[in-house]
Amino acid sequence: MTYARITGTGGHLPDKVLTNHDLERMVDTSDDWIRERTGISKRHIAVDGETTCDLAEQASRRALEAAGRTADEIDLVIVATTTPDQIFPSTACLLQQRLGIHGCAAFDIQAVCTGFVYALGVADKFVRTGSASCVLVVGAETLSRIVDWTDRSTCVLFGDGAGAVVLEASEEPGIISAHLHADGDYESLLRVPGGVSKGYDLVQEGGAYMEMKGNEVFKMAVTTLGRIVDETLEANGLEKSDIDWLIPHQANIRIINATARKLRMSTERVVVTVGEHGNTSAASVPLALDQAVRDGRVKRGETILMEAFGGGFTWGSVLLKY
Ligand code: ACO
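^ thats the input. predicted complex w/ acetyl coenzyme *A below
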């Protein structure tokens, strides 16, 4: 049996840092409120001219180096992003060009904060079916571009960044299972209403920015992530105690803690970056993985549960042996 196994990870954050104290000078908020309600103390923001592909390129180069692979060995590129550089070509094609990769399939996946989990699930299918053997899977965002910096209920939450993995065919696991879901009925709770096809009048009225009914999204996220944990364990006949690491989407420390409680996991077994990164959407899970791999917490052979929830709504999980 062929599995898809992560052989290298990489991450990259823009240099510019925006602290809660900086935000206090921009909107009616406080460091205390942001920390207490979200766990966030700072986030990284791309400067003018710094794009999603720029961040993706740096993260990808690190992942390739960690895997001991060169760009010409990659036979599929998938980029999960909600904030592509341009309408087309896809950010995956732009990234291919930057890295000097030619000819293999390359495409973007748009599942907002669940994007990386979706991308990993799709890449896994390519590897298992023999359609690809060395895949670059990236989550990269410049979410700051779709944040209304005058709206205190959303602007304190988000940040920019990129994370990447190299996924290779292997006899040993590897990704064990991926569980992907969506329900478009909840569009009104979390969205950017403007867009190419709907038109730019809406955009001029502020529709180019994220709108979120935070409290309702919060409740849905907690219950849905609880369900995806149960689904993943049941599908694999595992107990909660079989999971070594929870690597959750980094939206809010209270949502992360609720999922950790559901798994009866101690906080030392949960990788948390939300305090330093904010919510980087599709980049949050691979950035957290990369941090935990590089600081030596996550070790080869350990069992990791990744989960995410985001706009769509979309949600999903990936269970893997690192
Ligand atoms: N500073 C100070 N006060 C604020 C701020 C702020 N930045 N933002 C909101 N408030 C106020 C509100 O106006 C409200 O005041 P009121 O009681 O006078 O009306 C009060 O704080 C409480 O607001 P709530 O929205 O009820 O606060 P809550 O505890 O729900 O926290 C938060 C808000 C942090 C947004 C939370 O609901 C949350 O994290 N939601 C989920 C976000 C998420 O996970 N999104 C999913 C992924 S995003 C994606 O897919 C792109």
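The longest helix spans residues 214-235.
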